[in-house]
What does this fold into?
Amino acid sequence: MLQPLGDRVIVETLNEEEKTVGGIVLASNAQEKPTTGKVVSVGSGKVLDNGNTLPMSVKVGDVVMFDKYVGTEVTDDGNDYLVLHDSDIVAIVK
It folds into this structure.
């Protein structure tokens, strides 16, 4: 498993099947990029200028919402993940 550094978070994106109002399932290339995912690993936090570490705002297992076109897509052991900065996460889904 990958271990992110600093204020980075590794998220497994949650792909929801998209349907139109008429019930037609959209092809994967016609769907929007996913904006929710499950946190699978977190870094130690952002190191501030004074040397203190700002703790992460999410933990492993949280389902989060993030901006559409952020992060770096990576593959590890055949699974696709997204590496984000903690600041790219906009909400925790409860």
